[in-house]
Structures are given as C-alpha cells and as structure tokens.
Amino acid sequence: MPANTYVGAIDQGTTGTRFMVFDHAGQVVANAYERHEQIYPEPGWVEHDPMEIWENTKTVVNRALREASLDPDQLAGLGITNQRETTLIWDVETGKPIYNALVWQDRRTTDRVEEVQEAGKVEWIREKTGLECDAYFSATKAEWLLDNADPIKLERIRPQDIRDRAEEGELRMGTIDAWLIYKLTGRHITDVTNASRTMLYNIREMEWDDELLEEFNVPVALLPEVRPSSDEEYYGYTDPEGFLGAEVPVAGALGDQQAALFGQTCFDAGDAKNTYGTGSFFLMNTGGEPVSSENGLLTTVGFQQSGEPVQYALEGSIFVTGAAIEWLEDVDLIDDPTETAELARSVDSTDGVYLVPAFTGLGAPHWDGRARGTIVGMTRGTRKEHVVRATLESIAYQTRDIAEAMEADSGIDMSRLRVDGGAVKNNFLCQLQSDIIGTDIARPEVDETTALGSAYAAGLAVGYWNDVDELRENWQVDRQFSPRMDRDDADQLYSRWDDAVERSLDWAQDEEGE
Q1: Is the pTM of this model over 0.70?
Q2: CB 434 within 8 A of CB 480
Q3: What single-letter DSSP state applies at residue 453?
Q4: Which of 287, 294, 251 is nearest to 271 (CA)?
Q5: How far apart are CA 345 and CA 115, in angstroms?
Q6: What's the rounded Cα separation, in Å, for the pair 441 and 424?
Q7: How far apart are CA 66 and CA 52, in angstroms?
Q8: Average pLDDT, the chain
Q9: How many Cα atoms occupy the beta-carbon half-sphere of 153 within 13 Å?
Q10: Phi/psi at 188 (nearest 5 deg)?
Q11: Per-residue pLDDT tens for 79-109?
Q12: CA–CA separation, 102 vs 45, rounded Å?
C-alpha cells in the first residue's frame, strides 16, 4: 500500500454514528460522532429514522476527514459495523424507507414470539439459527413491517399492498449494515454475521432458510446477498460523484459484537471478549464448528474471511448495561456517567440494594421479554450512592451470568477476558468485574474495538494488512485487573443477585402491544 493511506470504519450504533480512521498500527487518526433520536411511539417500542442515520453517516465521515486534514483518496478501504438485528424495509425506486427501523430493543412482537413458542417451534428455530426465539431478532420485525407499515408513506402513485410489492422485488429488507452498503454502493448486500442474527438464516447450511421464510412470511425477494465479513471481491465502491467525492472500496462488514471480537483479535477457539455498550455482549470464538448451548446462550457466526471457513462463536446478550447508567442520568441521580465511580466508591457496599435493569426484558441466560426493571432491598437509609453502586454491580453480575454459562457450554475455563466499550474507561467497574467473575480483565489501548474490527476486516480484504498475525501484533494491553475480593464474599453477593432477578421476571403481563 502507498504511504499515507488509511482504512476507515463506519460504526453505526444504537445511540449514534461514529466514523474512525486507522493507520497501519491500528491507531486512531480521525474520529467524529453524531447522536440520533431514539423514538418511543408506545411502551416497549423503539425506532430509529434510517434517513437520519444516513445523513449522520455522511456528516461524520466528512467531519472526521476534514478535521484530520485527510483526503478521501487516502482511504484504502471502508468497513462497516452496526447495531445488529435492527431492521428496516426500503423502496428500491425512491431509496427511502417505508417505515422507521425497528430497533433490536423493540418488544412489539413479543405476542408473535409467544405464538411461535406455544407452537413448539423453539428448538426447531434454535437448531437452524443458533438463536432463541425472541423479539430481539429481525424475523418478527420484518413480518411486522410487512403487515403494518402504512402504504401511504411510500409516496407512490400506486400504493399497492406492501407484501405484493415485496414479492415483486420492489422493496428491500436489511439490517443497518445492508442499508449503509446500499446507500454507499447501490448494492443490496449483508455479511454472514448480520445474516446470522435475523432468525431467517441457517448457520449450518450458510443460506437463507426457506422454511423460516415461510414461517415468518418474508419473501426471499426482499433479502440481501450474503457475503464474507472480509470480502476480497468487495461489496462495491463509493460513488465518486457522491458525498465522499472518491471511489473507495467497501470491503468489510460485521455486526458490532462480532466486529469487537475481530478487533480484539480473538481469532482462535477459546478467545473471549465482552463489550460494554448500551447493552453488553460476551462472545467466545468456538472455531469452525457451531457449539450448541445448554445454558441459554446463542450460537452465532463469529466472522468469515474471504476463501476461508466460517468461524463460529457462543454469545451471551445482555440487553441493558450502559443504558442503565444513562437511566441514572435520566432520573437525575447523576449529571454525568463519569460520576458513577466516585459515588460507588463513597459507600462500602450497596447496603443490600440490588438493581435489575430489565428495562427491555432480560436476554441471556434468562430470555424473558416480560421482565422489567426492579430495585429491591431498599430501606429508609438507602441513598443515591447505594443505587448507583447497585447499578454498576448489576453490570458485573449479568456478565458473570454469561461467563458461567459460557464455561459450562464450551468446557473452557477462562483465565482472561478482553473488554472494550465506553464503560470500561471506568476503573471501578473493571475491578468490580474482575472480582465478581474471579478472572483477569484485560483492557486494550484502543478500546473502540468495534470500529477497529470492521477496519481490520476491510483492510485485510484490500491488502492493507497481509494477515491476522499483523493484527495480533497491534493488540496492546492498556491495563489488566486481577481479582482482589475474597471468593466467598463474591459468591455471597452473587447469590443474592439471583434472588433479585427472580423478582423481575414475567412482570409486563398487561402492557399494550406485548
């Protein structure tokens, strides 16, 4: 590669869109971020405006390049990483969505999921997809959009039934990666990791599953082509006449958690990472064969490089961790997330208070869409410091839930967990996490590993990096945390966590739309 070239990564997340540019050492040379609106039309419903996301994508790409004095022609390639499962359908003719995107947190299809569960199809779905039957995934979201999106919003002279237009190939469905690839290149493509999160893709056969498409009434004509995460044939090129003003190959894409696995260089079976974002997502590379879970975890596609076999992963999905800290802000218990460590340290314990942040249900290993946020153990002496500390502890406890399930399923005893995401800047949380799980926690120098992973995927595809050994050399530890708490004390605290979770389960029995 010529000197002074870089790789760019579009990191489209739940709360905003970031563009980062990395050099050959995996260091950040440009960075810009823009938040987008969270839309809550009804209780349990969460939507995003895809056009706002696209406009923000253009904004952050241009801003990052401008502020770093980089020319678009210096980009050797572009990678994309995205909030997974968030689903939209758009019109091929106008290029506009027919409705807002339904976000992964959205619970409006809980009733439909329960119908499938009652029909005894849970194991059938798990065998094909590796997933729990849950409203989290894309299948029921796509079905809802096809049944409920308003044809008037299509802005067409002949607003035919949406399903008819879908069958005729006039509409496109995708997760956010497919939407951005389409807007960047004009091509309808997704990668294997995002396809594996739709509950429509057979991860053993590595193809869209006709029986699942029939079950959820999703026409195959809607679906994108599925390609490797790092694709030497490229997904396409940016339009030189478009906003970027250059023809840059778009060559890598991974769902955000798989991108973090890739960015943390978890290329070998047994390597594990946990990303602390809006939710937390714990993935372990299990190699070339899918490992079925007996403990409520997901079996998913980890990544695929061009011409190589798929690497699978076990995943524990925690719906609310960083979002619980945002909630503390929303209810004015804190003014800024950086306060949480100081407030938590100011008390010796939570004084028996436990907070279960099941604001959008519970993911692994419980999988209860009707669980709701719960605070237990309060007394007249409970202060905000106790609630803040209980919120941080809830993140550590939920992660231990996953760690224990992961070790049981894989048979691998983890000696170290690699961590990333915004919350790991909090040293108190990292130490607490080490204490509660009883393992070393390794925080890398570059903690934006989601963006880094998609940059690595694109860079490998275009030859910016030669092989994964180069990437391993880039990974450097910023700080490692080792357990300090007595093991019996940690176990005692954790045992009461189970009691608190029990009180949050199956709460939302009468919510409209659920």
Answers
A1: yes
A2: no
A3: H
A4: 287
A5: 46
A6: 10
A7: 21
A8: 91
A9: 14
A10: -100, 95
A11: 999 999 999 999 998 999 999 999 998 999 9
A12: 8
